Here is the input.
Amino acid sequence: MKKLTDSPHLFAFITVLCWAPSYVFNRALAPFLSPESLGFLRFGIAAVILSAILIRKKLSFPEPRDLPRFAIAALCGFSLYMIIFNKGTGMLTAATSSVIIAISPVLTTILASVIFHERLKPVLWLFIGLEFAGIVILTDVRMGFSVNQGILWMLLCVLMFSCFNLFQRKLTEKYTPLQTSGICILFGAIELIWAAPTAIREFTALPVLMKSYVLFLGLFSSALAYITWAEAFAKAKKTSDVVNYMFLTPFLAALLDFILNREIPKPTVIIGGLMILTGAILFNITGSRNTQK
Here is the structure.
């Protein structure tokens, strides 16, 4: 049991289990809450919980010189990211959104390679090409510009979350996973404080079921998920050991979407999604073996 808890794999798997419902719940909440309101509610709930835990455990506040890193990480992974994420998921099916986000592990690996001066072998670029071909099929221009716009929002999320992963990786080298997640989420909630009046008004008008979705997103998809994500990074030897688990998210999200809404993915989503996931998995497997300094 101790060997399992010392490994990043358990914590990474718990994270994707908590994240998968967010694609379904965000889409359900889109008609009721603005992207800004949902972002504030989600991270406001998480910030209150994590702040209480930080105080109870008497964990120190970050050094002043590290605060800009936490603020930028919060923008990339929480406040600005969540506004964009909510816009994108409101325009797409849960399966489509989660498949696009599955590109994050590859982009994270590319950025990490650049930062750490690693050279990518040519075969890895072939896998990247396969992914972008999958995106083109997934877009399906015949479906109209609104679908394309949603995909563009989600691609921007991929870039931002990849940057967040790198910040998370560096911050957990100096701070505990609880400190890293707690302070980042606190910054994220502060950065969205301007949306609080509208968020509270919209939340009070929600049906009971929709309120339960918001609470789940705050408690599990935010507070718990980002603690376990940071814990996974802290225990991992390589970034790819953790981000690899994001490949499971599309399947979990599509399964939950089918269970709750009986929503079967369109052929373009299945074909494009399989291309993206195949390219992402091959990239990660090959990259972890062949990436050179």
In short: The mean pLDDT is 81. The first helix runs from residue 2 to 5.
